[in-house]
Amino acid sequence: MAYFQNIDQIQYEGPKSKNPLAFKYYNPQAKVGEKTMEEHLRFAVAYWHTFTHDGTDPFGAGNMQRSWDRFQGIDLAKARVEAAFELFEKLQVPFFCFHDVDVAPEGSTLRETYQNLDTIVSMIKEYMKTSKTKLLWNTANMFSHPRFVHGAATSCNADVFAYAAAKVKKGLEIGKELGAENYVFWGGREGYETLLNTDMKLELDNLARFLHMAVDYAKEIGFDGQFLIEPKPKEPTKHQYDFDVATGLAFLQTYDLHHHFKFNIEANHATLAGHTFEHELRVARLHGMLGSVDANQGDLLLGWDTDEFPSDLYATTLAMYEILQNGGLGRGGLNFDAKVRRGSFEPDDLFYAHIAGMDSFAIGLLAAHRLIQDNVLEDLIAQRYASYSEGIGKEIVEGKANFHKLEAHAMQLTEIRNTSGRLERIKSLLNQYLLDVPNAVSG
Predict the structure, then answer these.
(1) Of the listed 100, 102, 307, 359, which one is catalytic?
(2) Which residues does 349 contact at the CB level (< 8 Å), separation at least 6?
């Protein structure tokens, strides 16, 4: 059964194309350096926003036009699988991602939920046999159901902790069965509203115990996917324990988990934490912890997670700069954790949105690759910190200086001269590289 009958497979047509259902910059097989665009970008479709999001917001009912929504229960889940693999094929995406409840409905008991999952996972597995699209990562939704009102692994209720563990156990088994490259832990309600009724030490200890159990079980069943922590500062809880990369890294190191995890970094979560997307990527990269990316953007005029498809070319360029400097994303990828706007309710809008996101990151890849090739930022940074490559600066870097030597050096100074950071010049250079992308593609 076809769910997108009016859509053919999306092809690359180049920057001059006027076809809204064509890639202008994303050419999967085009080489950028030693890899193809597809190998660099490793795009993934988010099952939840694409196939289950109905457009509901706090002020209005669902309004999305989705032909599969005429079904219910397990039949709806099966129809979504059919629609999903049709969209994957027509977009030519190499990966997809899902939460357990995205693909199969919860039953009245955990046993029934498992049965529903087994039915749909078996169907997905059959589709994957003839599809190029693989599973980038799966995860367990431990935030939507009322049982998780006080959290999951950090809940004050031990029964909830046990239920959450059962869901992750099943998720790891599914990840192994479907060949997932990664498994993500996003603690949507792993945080607190107030310290007045919170035992923070117990909650953090329990979260660490939970994650160690997951590591142990993955080893037990031979699941070798990369484990990923996805930071978010707030929403739905006021303060979440994985606030940002730095906070998450401190937690992992404190509980001796840093050898087992990397980070799945979402652009919109970074801005909610008061950071730029590239800041979070840089912090993770510098510590060898950059694992994967949720590719979206937020509206800086709004204070919540709007999960918009990425179109900010400065953000995609600076993100790809960090990813290229990282040597790529390894087993990770660029997952479009993004949803069409409520006013974009027709099925075709799903394709327009993904095309926009894929082209935006393709432009970012091309611009970032050329910036690195030309050593633009590296040369500017080297000049700015040149004082540390000779004299007293070199001694500081090499660990040969102490306060006595530094005081003696300072005593001899008659004048300290700083040089300009030339930020405006750098931004102008960045504009040049972005504006030259169409010429680079056509050339």
Answers:
(1) 102
(2) 340
The verdict on whether 99 is a catalytic residue reads yes
Tell me the C-alpha to C-alpha distance, in Å, between residue 76 and each of 68, 126, 136, 171: 6, 17, 23, 21
**CA-based nearest residue to 10, from 348, 335, 294:** 348
Check: CB of residue 167 under 8 Å from CB of residue 147. no
For position 443, what pLDDT does the model report?
54
Q: Which class for 391: exposed (0-12), middle (13-18), buried (19 or more C-beta within 10 A)? A: exposed
Q: How far apart are CA 441 and CA 24, in angstroms?
A: 9
End-to-end CA distance of the chain: 41
pLDDT at residue 383 is higher than 90: yes
Q: Which of 49, 99, 269, 354 is catalytic?
A: 99
Tell me how far apart the alpha carbons of residues 149 and 280 are, in angstroms, rounded to a whole number: 28
Structure tokens at 67: 């032909």
**Residue positions counted in the chain:** 443
Give yes or no for residue 356 having a pLDDT over 70: yes
pLDDT at 442: 62
Active site residue 205: no
In terms of Cβ atoms closer than 10 Å to its own Cβ (0-12, 13-18, 19+), residue 217 is: middle
